[in-house]
Request: fold
Amino acid sequence: MNEYADYAGDPREVPPRHLVSLSRTDALRLLGGVSLGRIVFTHQALPAVRPVNHCLDGDDVIVSLHDGTTLASLTAPAEGPGLVVAYEADAIDPETHLGWSVVVTGYARPVTHPDELDHYRSVLRPWVAGAMQHALRIQPDLVTGFRLTDQFPTGRPAPFEGTPTTAAATPPRA
Reply:
């Protein structure tokens, strides 16, 4: 009897999945293939989470901000590296439970140079009404990620089927 035998009768049941760790390079590549994620920050001494648009600039995560939002009111101290935040994005299929998740933890500072802001306005496509007024640059100190796969871990990541960006991130098995 194998671990999948119990799941053959009910199509709503999904067999157990396995976690395969991603390298920093693969995690950032996957993160760069999607445009929506969640930023985790401290608001009034409590953790807060907001969905936001992003793009990558090298390894840095650039997040769009709008006037009047809690995030737009955050300011980094004048001295020091910035605000500690986490940023998470994923692509996990709700039916098959296959996919990936990436978390970037680091310091965030507002983007203040007008040319950089103009560039990010042209790259980022806000998912809410209104033009992007501000941007936040997250410089990652820690990048972690994993794939959820139906293959037993063999030391080599399984090819991911799903979105084109994730399929291109992992070379096919020989």
